[in-house]
């Protein structure tokens, strides 16, 4: 290829001009000089398709064709890379597959779609000789996927722990700081734009499970869907849980956790999303507000920590444009040469059994609600002891004969034993509300 051809622009088509799409336009416009200096040629945004062509996005669209003609964009031979930023499942899937059929590379931030249909999309892209890049789908502006896929590629990944959702991290931080209940803090998060009008994906842990699915697949070479990942949200946490966490020396975070069990060939995967007590001394415990962080532990590198904004217009756009630049380099090199999307070669990815929660061994925080009268605490302790669960610490809040929270920190036990004890305890006449269990991760530094 001649040097003049090497300097020709790579054409970009953007489907979806919402918050992140607008950010992509801004980054491509404002950083055009540094992008070209690093690539040796420009990225040229040629077309944008969005159903809403009337709203003023307050961004410079001069020289860009902007209309609602998604099919025209996908069929345009001048478009080399399609950026899908419409979100959701069905329409986004059709856009990506149509782009792939037309032998166009794709960049997306759609973690939900990839967590559900990733195998199909990656397979068809490989058959067509094109790439699907998705750095912005996990961790916003944090280059966590690229780091796991390439920077840590020489390691057997042993474990990863992630604060993967900025909305829930903001809510938990505010509940701890103010002593308020979940609902008013969530409303404030919605007013500030951190939470959607329907916050279910965030508050119920689904968004974090989508992201953990991609991370675990990449870390362990496992075919995995988010439906397989046990997932709990933060709605049932009460202000008293944050008080107890502080007294016990912990902080509450919604974590996505994935670990490898066993050796190659007989490996099982642990993957779960739930509220977790993390040691107050640990680095992850210091991640507050809407920030994200992921700790990755490899056999050679040891523990690494990636921290930064997990969402937002420009941080997420930064990751999208980085993917555009990486694919554009490969286009100019004339080959389909990027690292496999999920780090492992597609032919070695395989389903790996998940470790059932009941098999896990660990320590637990238990919040019982019981009538405040003599003998009740001894009865609770007796049931725990009969199930082989020792008690490390106990705090009882309130007094006066009504129902009060009894907060227990256990010794190491199997989750199956703890669940069995809870079932028995919740049937006791002096227990007036379902017991709340929160797992503890003591290994974090």
Q: What key phrases describe this protein's structure?
A:
445 residues, alpha/beta, Rossmann fold, Dihydrodipicolinate Reductase, domain 2, Alpha-Beta Plaits, 3 domains, 10-stranded mixed beta sheet, 6-stranded parallel beta sheet
Give the strand content. Answer: 25-35%
> What kind of sheet is the major sheet?
10 strands, mixed
Q: Per CATH, which architecture of the largest domain?
A: 3-Layer(aba) Sandwich
The CATH homologous superfamily of the largest domain is called NAD(P)-binding Rossmann-like Domain
CATH-assigned fold name of the largest domain: Rossmann fold
Write the layout of secondary structure elements.
Elements: H1 3-6, E1 10-15, H2 19-30, H3 32-39, E2 43-49, E3 65-67, H4 70-75, E4 81-84, H5 90-101, E5 105-108, H6 111-128, E6 132-133, H7 144-151, E7 157-163, H8 166-178, H9 182-191, H10 200-203, H11 206-220, E8 222-223, H12 239-248, E9 250-261, E10 268-279, E11 291-298, E12 302-309, H13 313-333, E13 350-351, E14 361-371, H14 376-386, E15 391-396, E16 403-410, E17 413-414, H15 415-425, E18 431-440
Parallel strand pairs: 1-2, 1-4, 2-3, 4-5, 5-6, 8-13, 10-18
Antiparallel strand pairs: 7-9, 7-11, 9-10, 11-12, 14-16, 14-17, 14-18, 15-16
Helix pairs in contact: 2-13, 5-6, 6-11, 8-9, 14-15
């Amino acid at each position: 290829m001649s040097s003049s051809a090497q300097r020709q622009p790579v054409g970009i088509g953007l489907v979806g001009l919402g918050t992140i799409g607008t950010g992509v336009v801004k980054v491509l416009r404002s950083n055009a000089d540094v992008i070209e200096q690093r690539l040796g040629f420009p990225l040229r945004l040629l077309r944008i398709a969005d159903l809403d062509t009337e709203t003023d996005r307050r961004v410079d669209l001069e020289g860009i064709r902007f209309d609602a003609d998604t099919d025209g964009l996908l069929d345009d031979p001048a478009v080399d890379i399609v950026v899908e930023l419409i979100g959701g499942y069905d329409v986004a899937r059709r856009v990506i597959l149509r782009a792939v059929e037309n032998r166009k590379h794709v960049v997306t931030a759609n973690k939900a779609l990839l967590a559900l249909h990733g195998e199909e999309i990656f397979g068809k892209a490989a058959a067509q000789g094109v790439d699907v890049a998705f750095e912005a789908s996990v961790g916003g502006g944090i280059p966590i996927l690229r780091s796991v896929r390439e920077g840590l590629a020489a390691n057997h990944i042993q474990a990863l722990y992630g604060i993967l959702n900025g909305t829930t991290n903001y809510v938990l931080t505010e509940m701890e700081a103010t002593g308020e209940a979940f609902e008013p803090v969530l409303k404030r998060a919605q007013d500030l734009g951190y939470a959607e009008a329907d916050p279910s994906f965030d508050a119920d842990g689904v968004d974090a499970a989508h992201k953990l699915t991609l991370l675990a697949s990449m870390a362990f070479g496992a075919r995995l869907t988010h439906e397989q990942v046990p997932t709990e949200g933060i709605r049932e946490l009460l202000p008293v849980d944050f008080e107890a966490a502080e007294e016990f020396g912990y902080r509450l975070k919604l974590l996505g956790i994935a670990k490898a069990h066993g050796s190659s060939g007989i490996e099982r995967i642990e993957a779960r999303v739930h509220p977790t007590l993390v040691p107050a001394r640990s680095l992850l415990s210091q991640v507050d507000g809407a920030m994200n962080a992921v700790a990755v532990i490899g056999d050679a590198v040891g523990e690494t920590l990636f921290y930064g904004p997990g969402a937002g217009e420009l941080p997420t756009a930064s990751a999208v444009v980085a993917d555009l630049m990486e694919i554009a380099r490969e286009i100019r090199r004339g080959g389909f040469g990027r690292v496999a999307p999920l780090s492992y070669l597609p032919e070695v990815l395989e389903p790996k059994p998940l470790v059932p929660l009941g098999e896990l061994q660990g320590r637990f925080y238990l919040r019982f609600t019981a009538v405040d009268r003599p003998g009740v605490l001894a009865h609770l302790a007796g049931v725990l002891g009969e199930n082989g669960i020792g008690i490390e610490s106990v705090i009882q809040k309130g007094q006066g004969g009504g129902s009060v929270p009894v907060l227990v920190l256990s010794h190491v036990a199997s989750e199956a034993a703890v669940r069995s004890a809870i079932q028995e305890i919740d049937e006791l006449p002096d227990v007036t509300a379902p017991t709340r269990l929160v797992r503890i991760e003591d290994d974090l530094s």
